[in-house]
Amino acid sequence: MDITTNAAGHLTIGGCDALALAQEFDTPAYIYDVAAIRQQIRAFAAVFEQRQVPYEVSYASKAFATVAMYQVAAQEHCHVDVVSGGELYTALKANFPAANISFHGNNKSEAELKAALAAGVGTIIVDNFYELDLLQGLLKATPEKQQNILLRLTPGISAHTHAYDQTGQTDSKFGFDLESGQAEQAAKLALAAPQLNLLGIHAHIGSQIFEVAGFQAAATKLLSVLKAWHQEFGFTPQVLNLGGGFGIRYTDGDDPLPAADFVDAILATLQETALPFAQPAIWIEPGRSIVGPAGYQLYRVGSRKDVPGLRPYVAVDGGMGDNIRPALYQAHYTAVKAATPQAPALETVHLVGKYCESGDILIDEAPLPATQPGDVIAVLATGAYGYSMASNYNRNPRPAVVFAENGQAKLVVRRETDADLVQNDLSYL
Ligand SMILES: Cc1ncc(COP(=O)(O)O)c(C=O)c1O
Ligand SMILES: N[C@@H](CCCC[NH3+])C(=O)O
C-alpha cells in the first residue's frame, strides 16, 4: 500500500503528520488527503480529454457526502449524483450547482422528487414505472418546465464482486429490465411525455469491480440498445451513463487496474462501435475510486487480550460504528502504526473495535509492530462508505472528519458529542 512519511518517519496525510492530527483532532477520526481526491477526478477527466470523447465525471456522493466534499467536487468542476433528499440538501447547502446534480434512487419519494424539481436538479435518473408516473404528475404544476431524465436499465450483467455490491443483473431491485422489454416500454413512455426530455440511458453494474470485461460488455449492450431505439423511435441519445464501480486497493493482495485505465479500456471498446448518430457524452459515476484511497481512519489502541495459542485481540477506540464494511461485506483493510508505518510486523493480531458485537472486527489478521495503549493506528483506504455508512450504534458519537492538504488540516465535520446523541430524544414523562 502506498503511504507517505516525514523526516521523523511518521505517517503523513496531505502533508500533515498523522500523530499531530490525532493530537489535534482526537481519535477516532476520518482524515482525507484532499489532493488525492482532486488528482483522481482529474485523472478521469484526462482520459476523456485524450480520447476526445464528450463526458461528465459525476462523483457518486453516497461514498462520502459532506458539505466540504461537495465544495471540492464543485471546485474540480465535476458533477455529482445524489440518492436521497438528504444528499441533495447537503449538496445545495454547499452551493453545489443544481444543474450539475443527477438524482438517483429506486424509490424516490414524492417529497424528494418535489425537492429535486424545486432545486432545478439537472438530471433525474428514472428507475421504474412508478417514478415515471409520479414525476409527470408533479411536473404538471409547472407546465412550462421540461425535466432532463435518463432511464436506468439493468443490462443483465453480473459483476464479479460481493453479492451486495452487484446491481446490473436481471434479478435486481434497480432499473428497468432490458430482456423483458420493460426498458423499451419505458423509453416509449418517456419519449411520449411532453415534459420529460430523455437524454439517454444509465447502467451501473456494481461496485468494487476489478475486471474491465463486465463494463465493456455493459457498454456494448447499452450502445446496441441506443442503436435499436434510434432505429425504432428515431431517438438520438445525448448521454450514455455507465455508472461507477471501479475497484480500489484495500490490501497488498488487491491488484486493480488504475481507475482511469479502466475508463480508458471502456472507451476503447465504445470507440470500436460505429454509431448512426453523433457520439453521445459518456458519463461515469465513480464514488469509491475518487474518495476511497484518499481516506485514512485514525484510532488509538486501548485494551489487549492475549490467550495462549490464539491470535491476540488489540482493541481500538472505534470500530463497526465508523466502519461497517468489514462486518457487512467481509471487507479487508490494511493498518499501520502511525509512528512507524514502515516498521516490520512483529505479530499478527485481530484488530477489533469497542462495540458490543463479536463481529466488530476491523481487520481479522492485521500484521503490526508492537503496540501499546495510546499508540495511533491508521487504517488505510477508508475514504469511501466509511463515514457515509457510520452509525451511532451503542450510542457512540460519530468521529470528526478532517481535510488535509498542502500540510494544512481543517476540521470539516465536527465530532459528535454526547449531547448530540440525545438531541432528538423526547421525554416520556
Ligand atoms: C447508480 C450508482 N452509481 C455509482 C455508484 C458508485 O459506485 P462506486 O463507489 O463503486 O464507484 C453506485 C454505488 O454502487 C451506484 O449505485
Ligand atoms: N456501500 C458499498 C458500495 C455501494 C453500493 C451502492 N450501490 C460498499 O461499501 O462497498
From TrEMBL:
Its EC number is 4.1.1.20. Substrate binds at residues 288, 325, 329, 357, 385. It catalyses: meso-2,6-diaminopimelate + H(+) = L-lysine + CO2. Residues 30-383 form the Orn/DAP/Arg decarboxylase 2 C-terminal domain. Homodimer. Specifically catalyzes the decarboxylation of meso-diaminopimelate (meso-DAP) to L-lysine. This is Diaminopimelate decarboxylase.
